[in-house]
Specification:
single chain, alpha+beta, Beta-galactosidase, Chain A, domain 5, 2 domains, 28% helix
Length: 721
């Protein structure tokens, strides 16, 4: 007689093992009944232990040294300079501190996890004792923080650590200890959600963010606690809610990637940092606890190395990036601190597509020597090597990713090549600025850059300069007493300041953008209509065409129509060093690079140079200085100390700007491109000789139409000239 229940369960298991974890009651039957189950289980533990004691022995020894330094019996020991007890017995944070992790060295969760993992590997009882002590301390601390309405940490790594520690030492805990830990963690995790009892500031980042807020914890509490008979009803609720939320995260990331590997948004200080870990850890945990290959269901992490390559600017020792969005602009080095584990994890989870991850890892091998890898390094028992075996993949010289709102340009992939990016569109405003139609140009230095810095979020430089259009290479349209666009910042820490008026910029970070692109052997370009980013009361048209004339030339064309002719238009170019201005020609140097910018149209313009000490961040009638104490380590970096503003000499509702920008090595002895420009019916003609070719460009005055470019080789006689 056929047992239909068993058949149904086997069918469900087969479907889920193929890669489909859904928030359904049937899914609960796939969860292992025994412990450990998160990241490691009874079947995989021998291989994990072997890897830890052989291949990763150096890492294990470093982990052991780290754990040995943990106190045996942790206690609350708040730094009185950051969290002070008041006369009524309550505690108050001292700015800029705003969470327990700022004032307490040991939270307990991470320490419990590391100690518990050592116990799993070595079986030494002292590590179990230390893990249990830190675990019990951590759950008491979470409960105390909730009762006193204090946030513990931003990224919830200690909470996750406590959950893992429970799972890994569960078999050695007493029933009373298990009950205490499970009940407290389920309660605290429920109440620190945005719909819980907590009223303090929380990281409520949902599926369209990095997802390292409190919602992420639901899956881990549910997966660790369900079936233990303590509070299975709540554990089930949290587990199914956690799976549902992770599915939303993965679906959203898959949509944003659109086959490119782009991750959530273009501020790579985030997307190259904690964001990949969110998905990869989930895949590892599901594989171990449910026996499901969830990674196979999604390809955005498989393609992620391609997105890394698009943002890669070669530099000795460590690559650089463009510095878009909420970037600190210290040196614009690519944030690769997590790439050792990110690329290893991708290679482990996608073995048939591991080559690109291995290529990125190999190119960064000197930068990825970590004193302490994440514990997931011990889980990669099927990964034989990170050595690439094939030819390095070629990065496209042009690619536009509308979902993250960036077009990427490059002449090649060496340090002698030219790199540029252009902001247009996007689907996620997180960590974005008011910078539609902004561009960055790099040639052996940042020649046209993204200015300002987020610092430590303690000064109004952050919302009133750095995030505004005036800090970017955009077009400004001045309308009196315009309300400034909102951006997060020091208000989160209790600072207050009068709100200034807008200095000509955009009021929407995301708005419908109409685009067209072109890509040929000689050139590539994008036409971007960002009119909707400006208030309709002042702007009727804001369209920019950004053309890369390979290898090192850029043509920037703007068509702008204001609501009133007296609304002044300003074309901006930000530079790190003071530029030289000779009429309509601007020359600036940075590191080993040089940029010569020619204003071709209008022929009669007003040129103003703004910058230098006391005016580096001039906007809305004020220089928005960095905080003298908290931001002092950020001063004097790649913040763009100067800007050029170009305005038509005569006011008009409609104006066209045409600028030719030539990047080159600073010491190069080259003949500057000297174009001829003439006004013809329907637009402008621009002609010049460059890269041993004749360039004939017709620039239409009509919006929505890309320029017509004709490129032809020059004759032998012309070459001699």
């Amino acid at each position: 007689m056929v047992n239909h229940r068993i058949v149904l369960l086997l069918g469900l298991a087969a479907a889920l093992t193929a890669g489909a974890l859904e928030p359904e009651i049937g899914t609960l039957k796939l969860l292992r009944k025994d412990h450990p189950r998160l990241f490691v289980n009874k079947e995989t533990l021998p291989a994990v232990r072997k890897r830890a004691l052989t291949v990763e022995k150096k890492m294990l020894d470093l982990l052991r040294m780290r754990v040995e330094r943990f106190p045996e019996n942790p206690r609350r020991d708040f730094d009185p300079r950051k969290l002070v007890r008041q006369k009524d017995g309550t505690y108050k944070f001292i700015r800029p501190a705003f969470m327990i992790s700022h004032a307490q060295k040991y939270i307990g969760g991470v320490e419990a996890r590391d100690s518990a993992f050592l116990y799993l590997i070595t079986g030494e009882k002292k590590y179990f004792v230390k893990a249990k002590n830190h675990l019990l301390f951590s759950v008491d601390l979470y409960e105390w923080a909730l009762a006193n309405q204090h946030m513990v940490e931003w990224e919830h790594k200690n909470y996750e650590g406590s959950i893992c520690a429970y799972d890994w030492i569960c078999n050695e805990l007493t029933p009373e200890e298990r009950k205490k830990i499970v009940e407290k963690l389920l309660y605290v995790v429920r109440e620190i959600q945005m719909d819980g009892k907590a009223t303090f500031r929380r990281n409520g980042g949902g599926p369209t963010t990095g997802f390292y807020g409190s919602e992420r914890l639901h899956f881990y509490t549910g997966a660790a606690f369900y079936g233990d008979g303590i509070n299975d009803k709540e554990a089930q609720r949290q587990l199914l809610r956690g799976i549902s939320k992770f599915n939303e995260v993965l679906q959203y990331r898959e949509k944003i990637s659109a086959g490119t590997g782009a991750l959530v948004h273009h501020t790579i200080a985030y997307t190259f940092g904690e964001y990949p870990e969110t998905c990869l850890n989930y895949f590892f945990a599901v594989r171990s606890a449910f026996g499901v290959n969830e990674a196979a269901r999604w390809n955005h992490m498989q393609k992620f190395p391609d997105f890394v390559d698009l943002n890669w600017i070669p530099y000795p020792g460590r690559p650089r990036e463009f510095g878009l969005g909420d970037c600190h602009h210290l040196d614009n080095f690519m944030p690769v601190y997590s790439f050792d584990m990110t690329m290893r994890s991708i290679a482990e989870l996608y073995p048939e597509h591991a080559e690109r991850a291995k290529q990125i890892h190999a190119r960064l091998s000197e930068r990825l020597r970590s004193r302490y890898r994440r514990f997931t390094t011990y889980l990669m028992t099927s990964l034989e090597s990170m050595e690439p075996v094939k030819k390095v993949s070629q990065v496209p010289r042009f690619q536009y990713i509308p979902t993250v709102g960036v077009a990427y340009f490059r002449s090649g992939s060496s340090m002698a090549d030219t790199y540029a990016c252009f902001r247009s569109g996007g689907k996620n405003a997180l960590h974005c600025h008011y910078d539609q139609n902004h561009f960055v140009i790099y040639h052996q230095g940042y020649l046209a850059l993204d200015s300002g810095t987020r610092g430590l979020n303690q000064s109004f430089h952050l919302p009133y300069y750095y995030a505004q259009s005036i800090a970017h290479n955009t077009i400004l349209i001045d309308m009196p007493r315009e309300k400034i666009g909102y951006h997060w910042g020091p208000g989160h820490h209790g600072y207050k300041s009068p709100v200034p008026f807008m200095d000509g910029g955009q009021y929407r970070k995301l708005a419908p953008v109409k685009t067209k692109t072109v890509n040929t052997k000689e050139y590539a370009g994008i036409l971007s209509d960002a009119t909707g980013s400006y208030r309709p009361e002042k702007c009727k048209l804001a369209e920019r065409e950004f053309l890369h004339l390979r290898p090192h030339l850029f043509l920037v064309i703007d068509r702008v129509k204001s609501a009133k002719k007296e609304y002044r238009k300003r074309w901006l170019l930000h530079t790190q060093q003071k530029p030289q201005i000779e009429g309509n020609v601007f020359t600036n140097f940075e590191e080993k690079g040089k940029l010569v910018t020619r204003c071709l149209w209008p022929q009669k313009v007003k040129v103003e140079l703004i910058g230098g000490p006391g005016r580096e961040f001039w906007a809305s009638g004020k220089n928005w200085e960095l905080h003298p104490v908290f931001d002092k380590n950020y001063k004097g970096k790649l913040h763009g100390n100067w800007r050029i503003e170009v305005s038509p000499e005569e006011p008009a509702e409609f104006d066209m700007f045409v600028h030719l920008l030539h990047a080159s090595p600073a010491k190069a002895n080259f003949m500057p491109v000297k174009p001829e420009i003439s006004q013809v019916k329907g637009g402008l003609n621009v002609t010049f000789t460059y890269a041993f070719k004749k360039w004939q460009i017709f620039i239409p005055s009509k919006n929505g139409v890309m320029s017509q470019i004709k490129v032809s080789p020059i004759t032998s006689r012309e070459k001699k000239k």
